[in-house]
Amino acid sequence: MLNKDLNKNMIPLSVPHISGNEWKYIKECLDTEWVSSVGKYVDKFESAICSWSGAKYAVACVNGTAALHIALKLVGVTPGDEVIVPTVTFISPVNAVRYLGAEPVFMDCDKYYNMDVEKLIEFIKKETFFKKGQTINKTTNNKITAVIPVHIFGNAVNLDRLLPVCKERNIKIVEDAAESMGTCYREEALNGRCTGTIGDIGCYSFNGNKIITTGGGGMIVSDSQKYAEKARYVTTQAKDDSLHSIHNEIGYNFRLTNIQAAMGVAQLENLKKYLKIKKCNYDYYKAEIDEILGLHLAEVPDYADNNYWMYALQIDKEVYGKSREELMLFLQKNNIQTRPIWHLNHLQLPYKDCQNYKIEKAYDMLDKTLNIPCSVNLKKESIDQVIRNLKC
Length: 392
Ligand SMILES: *Cc1c(COP(=O)(O)O)cnc(C)c1O
Known about the structure:
Layout: H1 22-32, H2 40-53, E1 57-61, H3 64-74, E2 82-86, H4 92-99, E3 103-107, H5 117-127, E4 128-131, E5 134-137, E6 144-147, H6 159-169, E7 172-176, E8 184-185, E9 201-205, E10 218-222, H7 225-235, H8 258-269, H9 271-289, E11 295-297, E12 304-305, E13 311-315, H10 317-320, H11 324-333, E14 339-340, E15 356-357, H12 361-368, E16 369-372, H13 380-390
Parallel strand pairs: 2-3, 2-6, 3-15, 6-7, 7-9
Antiparallel strand pairs: 1-10, 4-5, 8-12, 9-10, 11-13, 13-16, 14-16
Helix pairs in contact: 1-8, 2-8, 3-4, 5-6, 9-13
The structure holds pyridoxal-5'-phosphate.
């Protein structure tokens, strides 16, 4: 089911909510004719993301995929390198690896849909060796430069476990926090730190379906001034002298416009409110759904305060009597938009020949999961309608 199938009675899966200063700030851009990729809202959005996340530096990008592409480039991914990625994720971070001529190595997921950190550590220990400051894949003899933990559905990856291993093995961490804006750790060493700010570089997305949106947009965050300056440089065509147009490197046109940033500033003002609504709706759904025989709403990690971006319904088809596919079609007929999780990336045509490590759980999670409506502006009547239909 895609958005083209939506009619006006359909309860959508995840749509933007525009209720704050969006019109006012965008109007100001138009009135002042500051519409392009330079302007006060770009600066404001970047500093607002810094204050929100606690990152020292932020560089606005045209979208989250571009942010990931540049982040991988900055940490030193070059052609022939390998980057560890989850098989359960939107394909964007996997594609970003290939944009640089590098190869993904796929990992299984855990019960939160995130990359299984224990299996990943096992892979690093058993399947790679460390030589001259580099981690080398025993199977391919290629260098493993980076890992991309993706905080799926807003669930924080257990980075506390991963950090020391990556540090010891000189594997850079590029966090894909596209879905987890607002999720922060609440335990042990990472207590109070937000997803996206733990690794070497973090990336956010402000695509239309994310918890806050700029229509399309992304952000690179880091505590490293070196990475931030380089990110700014390569996303603006690598200008060494803008007057005489000197470019000593290949750059990209990846900057966010002032109009989009204006929307981002307005959206971010409401993030706290959105987070409350998302949690409240999750709790309401969960209490009702867990009463239905054969259905369960996926738990979230207890070591973080979740942003509850997406709600994952889990179906035990033997007990419930309908498979995921049957339930999806049934709900569609009843004007409720749902979506299975992404096809596993190690099976996608461009990546089917890449290495993968002991992928087991991901198949089961794919088979039993259906994402249900989760927009910030979801009405209580709509949630009740979803629950009523799940009970049928
Ligand atoms: C949305 C998303 C991205 C980036 O998406 P853009 O549409 O390019 O902003 C990257 N990774 C994940 C996991 C996502 O969900």
